[in-house]
Amino acid sequence: MDWDPRVRYVVTAVKHWMNENELADRTMFNSYAQVWLALFFLMQRGIELIPSLVCLRILATQMGPAQSLSKVECAYNNFREI
User: Which of helix, strand or coil describes residue 79?
Assistant: First the structure.
């Protein structure tokens, strides 16, 4: 799946801003949390630079029956492009 190239810039900008404003530390917002905060923002309606999980689920059901491995649904791994 190829994302919009702006995604990387937004994630980097959010991480830089949080570090500059001393909002990033290991107890509050570690690097993992910073990335997910930016990704969640980019999934919101009106922005939609990356597809939301709801959108991915809808597309997965349109592609056919869900696949599972050891009772774990693996429907999202069938995407070539969105």
Answer: coil
Using a pLDDT cut of 90, give the percent of the chain over it: 11
- Check if the beta carbon of residue 75 is closer than 8 Å to that of residue 60: yes
Q: What is the pLDDT of residue 82?
A: 45
Q: Which of 51, 34, 33 is nearest to 42 (CA)?
A: 51
Structure tokens at 15: 């991480």
Residue 16: pLDDT above 70? yes
Give how far Cα 77 sits from Cα of 11, 14, 18, 80, Å.
23, 28, 32, 9
CB 74 within 8 A of CB 67: yes
Domain limits, the chain: 6-78
Q: Which of 19, 3, 6, 12 is nearest to 51 (CA)?
A: 3
